[in-house]
Structures are given as C-alpha cells and as structure tokens.
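Lecture notes, unit on protein representations.

Consider one protein chain, 470 amino acids long.
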Amino acid sequence: MTAKSLNWLTAWLVLGGGLFGWVHGQDGPAAHWPNWRGPNLNGVADQAAKPPLEWSPTKNVVWKVAVPGKGISTPIVWGDQIILTTAIESPAAANPAKEKADNRNQEAQRERGEQRESRGGGGERRRGGGGRGGPPPSKPIQFVVMSLHLGTGAKQWETVVHEGIPHEGVHNTNTFASASPVCDGQRIYAFFGSNGIYCLDMQGQVLWKKDLGNMTMRGTFGEGASPALFADTLIIPWDHEGASLLFALDAKSGEEKWKVERDEASTWSTPLITEYQGVVQVITNGSKKVRSYDLKDGRLIWECSGQAMNPVPTPIRDGDHVLVMTGYQGFAIQSIALDSTGDVSGTSKIRWSRRDAAPYVPTGVLYDGLLYVTKFRDAILSILDAETGEVLVDQERLPGLDGLYASLAAANGHIYVFGRNGNAVVIKHGKQFEIVARNSLEEGVDASPVILGQNLYVRTHGHLYCFANQ
C-alpha cells in the first residue's frame, strides 16, 4: 500500500470509524471537518473546495452569529452541524472583594505582558502574547458544547457539560475552552482538561464523562491540547508540571485502555495518529523528545530529541516521514522517518532539520510538497521544500498581521493566514511569495479556519462567520 493510500485510510478511519463514515458521510470524508486540522489531519481542504479569497464584516458573508462566553477552540463539522466549545461565566453570585482583587491582579498581569511585548528580545518585538496567567476566576464557569446549523448558523442545541470554578487561571490570551472537540459521526468528544472530558451524542446528550484530575501548567498559561481519535480509541494528552501521562480511552465507554508516563513538562500539542506499515502510531511533540507510541498498547516505538520549549504545533504526516516543529526559546523543524525504532536522535532517520525559524503557537501547513511555516508568534512566513528542507522563501513579513495563534490552512491553490488582530492574508501556493488578497475583520482571531466546499468558517473572539463568494 502506498503512503498516499495509507494517508487516506487513516483519515477515513478517523472521520467515521471506518464503514460508518463511508455510508453516512454523503460525499465521503471531504463532507466533514471532524477535528481541528480537518479531514486529512493537516489543515488542507478537499481538492474540490473553493473558498473565497476576499471577505470582511460585510463582504461575502453568508451568515454571522454571536458566540457566548470565551473560547478559542477551532470548530468542527459533521454533516449539517458545526460544533464548538465555549466557557461562559456563570450568573451565580461571586465574592465581590475577591472579584475586585482578581481584576486588579489580571490587569497588572496584562500591563506586565504589554511591557514585555514592547521590549521584545533578540531584536524582535514579541507580539501577540507575553506575561503569565492570572488567578483562578472568582465566579463559576459553565463549560459548554454547542451545535449550529451549518447552512444558517442557527443554534441546534447547547449543553452545559460542567459548571465549577477552575483550580488555576489562564494566560491573558488563553481561555478555558481552547481544546477543540473531535467527532466520528456518532459521538462528539469535548475535552476541557482539568474540568473533564465529555462524550456526547449528535443531539447533545452526555453519554459518558471522565475526570482525570487537575493539571498544573507552566506559568499558569492554561491548558489547550486537543484529543485525537482513531476508530474506537480516544487519545488524551496530559503533559503538565506534575506527573505527565498519555491516556488511551475506549471511545464508546470512556474506560481506560492504557496510559503511559511521559518525561515531559507542560505541552499544548495535539497528538497525530497515523498508520504506517500496518502499525497505528500516536506521535506526540515534546520539549525533550518527539515520541511515537503504538496505539494498540502504548508501547514506545521511537523517540527523537531536538525540539525547543513549550511545544504547541501538531505533527504533520508527510508520506513516509513526519514533520515536527517548535518555536519558543529556540527554533526547530525536523523531518523524521516513520519506520524509525528506538532513539533516533542525531541519526540518518532524521531526513533534515532546521533551526532558523519555526512557529511557537500556529501549526504550519503542508501543501503539495511545500511546507509553509511562520516564525515564533510573528507574522513572518517561510516556505520550505518538504522533501529536502530547502528554504524557498525566507522569512517574508505578512503585512497587517499582528501576532499569530491560528494555524495555517490551504485550499484551491492558496494558503490562508490569520492574525490575532483579525487581519488575514491569502497567499498563492508556489515557490515564490505572492499575496493575492488582504482581508480584515473587526474582532481578533485565534481559532484556526475551517474550509468546506465553497465556504470558509472563521471563529472570532465574539462571533462565528460563514463566508462564501456572493
């Protein structure tokens, strides 16, 4: 079986648990966006997708709906449902004195963060983040999963899966709903980290829930890694400042299949699950090592050092290799062979590696042999040959974008890049740097774009948009 067919099989199984996705998916896997990286687990839309190149709050808008609460999780799509998570402050009474003190502390944190941003480091202005997290909220938080109609944006259902006061605060750019859900067409899995994981049916009824305890995140930055799904196994990343673990749960029941200890600290990277030569690998990014585990039993297959701190980007499958990247307090991009075994650090199993530029928060996108990546949190783009690592376009600045959290997406010969200030650029796919459109919204964007058919779905800080050529 070729690498291309293996990639398709992996996506097919993840999307629909095998046969179910084929029978009920109408147009097959391309009819859905079942996890935050899309049908091929890489941010690339189906070949038939033709989203708009231009949009604004009034241009090419099919619908726009307000989303309550705070959340930066990327929506997912199955059938006529677009599903997202959010965290809403409860109307329950709070302690006024504590709330006032918390507000002062949070404002002080923001001011210190802004001062760090203006000072920067290494000759660069550190945009789009900075500082540390604040105290826990003074009011209870409602953790919500909601479904909107894909065609109209009308709310179909909304479920409060949990209500309580989180044990930790979050970074001033993070939220309590930053992990994206995942769906197999029968069940929706929503992960709120320390506040539980919840399995819902397609009508929003909770089928099972599981409390894995509390995470302690570095710098009180908050949580954010999303779960990953393959057939009947749900993978839950649990890297933090305490005992880090990787859990495999039965997707139907929530029962634990296995768990493995990890010699890692806080990580915000979603695992990649992919099949290679008959073995399904769970590939996890990490500050100390990238590791691959056997989905069947959690056995360590291979590991490789060489990444930087605070891993956030998700690994990307590239045929017989996997691309991994980090960009905090150093830069690292590596292309590692999937037939590796044992510790392959510094060996020929690393096809190539680079340390000149890599993303901190956004995951890059691999499109038709070219790897598009940004630098740190900044709107600086490089284009690499994925096979050789050769730099084709070296650190071009993207005008108008102030910091990046949203991951890159690709469709119809174009690359979509969103800045935290709501501005976006569309780049023509190719070995030369060419901007074909510049767009702007009135709100910030941290969630990654979703592309299905003719439509582009964008979650801002307060709304969800559907854009299409009008």
